[in-house]
């Protein structure tokens, strides 16, 4: 069909045509037929495959964007979830640290109280021992004073007896 059109065009162009710029002979309908034939031929051979490729590419891009947005949403959700878990973990860790510090403070306070009680007990025992030793010393001194006063009395009485004699 194509070769027939070309041969027709060649025959028409070879004829000597008279006229000017706008001759309305068989060339005008032939040119319009040729234009329509080329349009149909280009549409079938060139435009349809290209439009199919472009449509497939557009569909692929849409699918890729959809998948990417879904993945981005999932990533955002996971990020928020992990940030919440991290915040909760930090809060739990702070609570554990706080409880541990309170427990350590209680333990230190108890140990300090125990040490103070032991020190007070030691002081009391030492004070009691000193009081006991003081009483023993006073009793011993009283006994010695009594003995010495008896001896002085005896000597005075002996001296008086010697003098009175």
TrEMBL record:
Cell membrane in keyword set: yes
Keyword DNA-binding belongs to the record: no
Pfam families named in the record: ATP-synt_B (PF00430)
Entry's localization field: Cell membrane; Membrane
Membrane topology summary: Single-pass membrane protein
Spans through the membrane: 30-47
Coiled-coil stretches noted in the UniProt entry, renumbered to this chain: 105-136
One annotated Gene Ontology cellular component of this protein: plasma membrane
InterPro entries: ATP_synth_b, ATP_synth_B-like_membr_sf, ATP_synth_b/b'su_bac/chlpt, ATP_synthase_B_chain
GO molecular-function terms, A-Z: proton-transporting ATP synthase activity, rotational mechanism; proton-transporting ATPase activity, rotational mechanism
Keywords per UniProt: ATP synthesis, Cell membrane, CF(0), Coiled coil, Hydrogen ion transport, Ion transport, Membrane, Plastid, Transmembrane, Transmembrane helix, Transport
Classification via PANTHER family: ATP SYNTHASE SUBUNIT B', CHLOROPLASTIC (PTHR33445)
Family, per entry: Belongs to the ATPase B chain family.
Role, per record: F(1)F(0) ATP synthase produces ATP from ADP in the presence of a proton or sodium gradient. F-type ATPases consist of two structural domains, F(1) containing the extramembraneous catalytic core and F(0) containing the membrane proton channel, linked together by a central stalk and a peripheral stalk. During catalysis, ATP synthesis in the catalytic domain of F(1) is coupled via a rotary mechanism of the central stalk subunits to proton translocation.
Subunit structure: F-type ATPases have 2 components, F(1) - the catalytic core - and F(0) - the membrane proton channel. F(1) has five subunits: alpha(3), beta(3), gamma(1), delta(1), epsilon(1). F(0) has four main subunits: a(1), b(1), b'(1) and c(10-14). The alpha and beta chains form an alternating ring which encloses part of the gamma chain. F(1) is attached to F(0) by a central stalk formed by the gamma and epsilon chains, while a peripheral stalk is formed by the delta, b and b' chains.
Name the record gives this protein: ATP synthase CF0 subunit II
Gene responsible for this protein: atpg
């Amino acid at each position: 069909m194509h070769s027939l059109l070309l041969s027709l065009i060649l025959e028409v162009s070879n004829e000597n045509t008279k006229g000017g710029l706008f001759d309305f002979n068989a060339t005008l309908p032939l040119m319009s037929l040729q234009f329509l034939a080329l349009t149909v031929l280009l549409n079938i051979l060139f435009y349809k495959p290209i439009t199919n490729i472009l449509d497939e590419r557009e569909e692929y891009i849409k699918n890729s964007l959809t998948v990417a947005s879904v993945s981005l949403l999932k990533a955002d959700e996971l990020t928020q979830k992990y940030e919440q878990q991290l915040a909760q973990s930090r809060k739990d860790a702070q609570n554990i640290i706080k409880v541990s510090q309170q427990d350590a403070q209680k333990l230190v306070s108890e140990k300090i109280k125990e040490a103070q009680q032991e020190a007070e007990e030691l002081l009391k025992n030492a004070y009691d021992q000193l009081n006991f030793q003081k009483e023993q010393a006073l009793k011993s001194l009283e006994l010695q004073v009594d003995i010495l006063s008896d001896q002085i009395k005896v000597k005075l009485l002996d001296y008086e007896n010697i003098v009175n004699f």
